[in-house]
Design goal:
By secondary structure, this protein is α+β, with helices and mostly antiparallel strands. It is 61% helix and 13% strand. The chain has a 3-stranded antiparallel β-sheet with strand order 1-3-2. Helix 2 crosses helix 4 and helix 3 packs across helix 4. The mean pLDDT is 91.
Length: 110
């Protein structure tokens, strides 16, 4: 990931509805959520939700899949991994133990 990709992602997440959508999709995991369900859960009108999902899609943060007449959206976990790797690339000045609390904080509780 380069700085342009990272700034595009941060720009997409800089609006509270888009951040809420992305966090919801992270929680949904591999099941994702239908666009209408996302709008209902966040109490956002469908046309507004569609515009926000398009921004997230264009930033590479989400992926979608048509299912009949609806579209299911999924968080792009590879993009999240690449962004975190970009942010942590030169972390800790060669002392990995310093970064361990951060890694523990973001790790899924298995």
């Amino acid at each position: 990931m380069d700085i342009l990709d990272a700034t595009t992602i941060f720009s997409a997440l800089s609006q509270h509805t888009r951040l809420d959508v992305f966090r919801l999709l992270i929680k949904a995991g591999p099941e994702g959520a239908l666009s209408g369900e996302i709008g209902d859960m966040l109490n956002v009108r469908q046309n507004t939700m569609s515009a926000n999902l398009t921004v997230l899609l264009n930033a590479g943060l989400v992926q979608n899949e048509r299912q009949g007449r609806t579209i299911r959206y999924f968080a792009n976990f590879e993009a999240v991994r690449r962004l975190l790797a970009f942010l942590m690339e030169d972390c800790c000045g060669g002392n990995p133990a310093t970064c361990q609390p951060i890694i523990e904080e973001i790790a899924c509780d298995g």
